[in-house]
Amino acid sequence: MAPHQPHAVSSHRHLVVVLLAVAAVATTRRAACAASTDGSSSFLRERCATTLDAGLCYDSLLPHAAEFQTSHVRLARVAADVAAAHLRALLANVKELLKTGTSAGDALHDCASTVSAAANLVRQSSAELAGLEEGGSSSRWGLSNAKTWLSAAITNEGTCADGINEAGAAAVSTSLDAGVAESRQHTSIALALVNGIPLQ
């Protein structure tokens, strides 16, 4: 019969305890993460209901839930960043169309200028919101700035679309209309979410 090895048995038991503890921690973290995600999802759905396109708002911002969780300010900032990304894509599309030598060249140049300005305004709004976030408060002045810049960006987006349509270049208009409309939707969503930030 083999001699009794209490040290080996003790080590085995210790290993089992450690493994059980690790499993428990992992389970707890998964549960906490799931709860956090559920909270962010519910918060997002509630806030998106205040926008003109709740479905687009929810679908486009849900992938960023970890960034905003249940913060009104962070949610609005993320929405502004998403809008800025769409404006950059729209600007790239306009510049590609300019390379084709279309008869709507002048209108496209104007469009590129207004879209670029819109993108800058949205970035300014995001930066203003980031400042509010770091300061831990929602100042009336800071929110007013963010709203003003987002409203101006929407106006610029509309100016681009109007200029292209007035140029009478159907092919160019068809190519850009969807992009402009989508950009305006995202900027409008960001503005609505900024409007929903409670003052502290």
TrEMBL record:
Residues 1-34 form the signal peptide. SUPFAM superfamilies: Plant invertase/pectin methylesterase inhibitor. Coiled coil: none annotated. Keywords: Signal. Pfam families: PMEI. Residues 39-193 form the Pectinesterase inhibitor domain. GO terms for molecular function: enzyme inhibitor activity. This is Pectinesterase inhibitor domain-containing protein. The lineage of its organism: Eukaryota, Viridiplantae, Streptophyta, Embryophyta, Tracheophyta.
